[in-house]
Design brief:
Helix content: 25-40%
Order of helices and strands: EEEHEHEEEEEHEH
Number of helices: 4
Shape: globular
Strand order of the largest sheet: 1-2-4-3
CATH topology: Ribosomal Protein S5, domain 2
Length: 196
Amino acid sequence: MSRIVTQNRRTAETEIALTLDLDGTGRAEIATGIGFFDHMLTALARHALFDLRLQARGDLHVDFHHTVEDVGIVLGSALAEAMGDKRGLTRFGQALVPMDEALVEAALDCSGRAHLAFAVTFPRGKVGEMDSELFEEFFRALAGNARITLHLTARAGHNTHHLAEACFKATARALRMALTRDPRLGEAVPSTKESL
């Protein structure tokens, strides 16, 4: 079964076109107009082994908030669609990722229940031109629209760039684990409720 999804979203604030292949090789073509965010989304695709093509135009003259949040909305929605009824999925994933002095843990459940627990504090207010508070907004939009439970916890770190990058890479590795098909499950839904 193909797990390739294309989504488009247009509002008065942003216009986003996205194609996601859960069974890719980590190729990314990202253009949001926010350099550091592009770097993080490229790392997400690479380490999750998704193929991700994403074009976003937003009201960057206002600030980056709308673009970052709306990319999270569209990517999360695409993940939910690509997962389908979740038959055969491993469902849970976790990763503990170092980035120099930073160490971030991601744990997630493709449960159908949207929740973000975000225990990461960034020492600086910006990375490049991007406000560091927007990382939490991205992950909140992603988790909410993918309908996953996601816990992100910083265990160490004092460099904002490293902490942010570890968040994206840990989430990527946890998604890669959770969205892998378990051949022992066959077409079973990974839940005692038989529905997720």
